[in-house]
Design a protein that fits this description.
This protein is an alpha+beta fold. Among the domains are: 90 residues, PDZ domain (Pdz3 Domain, Roll); 210 residues, 2-enoyl-CoA Hydratase, Chain A, domain 1. It is built from eight helices and 23 strands. Strands 1, 2, 3, 15, 16, 19 and 20 form a seven-stranded antiparallel β-sheet that branches. Strands 5, 6, 7, 8, 9 and 10 form a six-stranded antiparallel β-sheet that branches. α5 packs parallel to α6 and α6 runs parallel beside α7. The longest helix is centred in the first third of the chain and has 17 residues.
Amino acid sequence: MQASPVDAMRPFRPVLLLAAVLIAPQGLAVPAARPLATEIDTDRIDTASLPPPSPAVPLEDIARFVEVFRRVQADFVDPLDDRALMRAATRALLADLDPHSAFLPAAAANAWREQAAGAYDGIGVEVEVRPDRSLRVIGTIDGSPAQRAGLRTGDVIVAVDGRPVGLRREDEPSRALRGTAGTAVRLTLLRPGEALPREIGLVRQSIALASVNGRLLEPGFAYLRIAYFEADTAEELRRTLARLKAEAGGRLEGLVLDLRNNPGGLLTTAVESADLFLDGGLIVSTRGRGPTANTLYRAGPGDLLDGAPMAVLIDVGTASSAEVVAGALRDRGRALLLGARSFGKGSVQTLIELDNGDALKLTTARYYTPSGRSIQAAGILPDVSLPGTAIRGLREQDLPIHLEGGNGRGEGYASGVIVEGEAAVAEALRRVRQAAAQPRRTSPQ
């Protein structure tokens, strides 16, 4: 089998494609022990104190599993195919670990790779699979059918074309959202605060995933939005910054970076993106039980903004590798964070490919910000809170069997807050302008 580290950071990016996490296609996932890019230096954490591997499974437990398997095989009310039963047992093995580990049949694994490649046919929605197999919307892709139809974070999709999602346990519930471009699909969804379900019709399209866009808000001050982190996001970010600098006459006086509703993506890309705004130092560390899961990611020299002030917008839809970027910029004193507490997805998944085309998506490490704080189940609290829509049940800590943070239990808080609209951008710009008006601190001569 082959294992490739990926940031499965997002909560499930399902069908559409990006979810909870982007699974990197062959050639895109970079083993953590190797340099990520010329400007990134990766070091290994001392693993001498890591716990030893688990002992062999006791024979009595193996015998008990075989006995249960045979009982089900012989006495279940309907006949069962042995291979289907074993596949169900494999799914169950990962399903009870945490919300992000999963067994991916070959078709689902291929769909993840297709999504990671940057294009697919669907409606452009990020979802997570709930315990009842319904799909909770985490976010929508900019310009997608889902966004145009008004789907919102917190909506719960319960049926597709009149058929309950996840009706068959072996099906990936979000697969029903995919389909040939141009085909129609009808969603039945529940919206928080509304008593009756909604029916929404959409037409699938080819979704070309462009993860970065930007514009000048006023002379010298720019706005950048990162929708998610795919393989070439850092390069897109570099090109967009160069364009905005040129439009501003060669220099930017300040930047608003929008990470709201960004569910994450590839860890390597998030590290490379954060490095563009840092002049050396730690970006993030990962810690797990295996040696390759314990790594320090550092920035190289050179800040593309030359120290110009930054503000970063976050909310409950900011997850995973997006939290890595926000946490690094805040802990390193590089940016002010505005908005609402982030999602709290602070775990790393590794895609392990099996010989028959199936794959395992297995949680192998937690993220830690430069200050040593775990993001997992706690999220990142902004420096400045902004008003938004409070919705319960949107955070990592609300997911069943979620991992606890590496620093212990996450902080309690009542609701996740979605911060939408241009008012947040205007407030972030105001703060950046204020910072830009202050004298730049310089090093002693």
